[in-house]
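Why Glycosyltransferase family 2 protein? Reviewers of the renewal asked for a concrete example.
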Amino acid sequence: MTDTRTTVVVITHNRCPELLRTLDRLAELPEEPAVIVTDNGSTDGTAAAVARHHPGVRLLRPGRNLGAVGRNLAVRQVSTPYVAFCDDDSWWAPGSLSGAADLLDRYPAVGSVTARILVEPDGTEDPIVGELRDSPVPRPDWLPGPALGSFLAAATVLRTDAFRAAGGFHPRLWLGGEEELLAADLAADGWWLTYADHLTIHHQPSRVRDSTVRRAQGIRNTLWFTWLRRPLGPALRRTLHLARTVPRDTASLRAFAEATAALPWVLRERRVLPPEVEARLRSLEPAQRDSTARSYTG
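Here is what the prediction returned.
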């Protein structure tokens, strides 16, 4: 069942045991995908362990933590038409990469396919899955699944050329909701984003994470995306909603301060989305307001 259509890209930072488990699972896939790992400046022996246990994996070592831009670095090396992302604590289920490639082959206007996420070790669905499955985004009749307004990088296969043309992940956002800006730009380029319930990725959340830092980055990046791409009215509504609902602590205050400090950059780079793409995002607003999976906690 070897399938040469897709390359898997993984970014990692000081999570050697989790990464080796992920690479073990990827090596067992019947598709036998090429794998590229960007080691974002790990100091725990990650690079040596990958070279020793998985010599067939292409290992990139930029020497510092690039965040999500580590994926951009890896995609430069990709020669397959499709690229699948996963994190160092997640892995694709057998057959899912081929299934995603089949959908992208069959539907040339689809730019990305997001899979169902099972949280391990219990195999329960991630809370976000229900929102993906029941997405309110209007979709054309031909689309093979629900239309999405964004995607989850750790559970998505994309067209390599579409990713590159949209500019990849923005370096300023680093990590934490970094997908939203890229997803909107893909949609503005004419691509549809979809969810496929028959595809699966497993996620066993690493204990090596600072949830408070990630929350602050997520709030900041949400604000940046909102003011970079949304019209004035929706941008104001989302900003006020965030101000009312995020935890009232120093992390949230820091996030708003960082977002505000970058206002000159935001105004220089601001490019409002086409009306048809903005309409898709507007259809998501009620679900976003009521979402528990999308709340900023930690």
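The chain has a mean pLDDT of 95. This is the kind of structural detail the renewal will allow us to pursue systematically.
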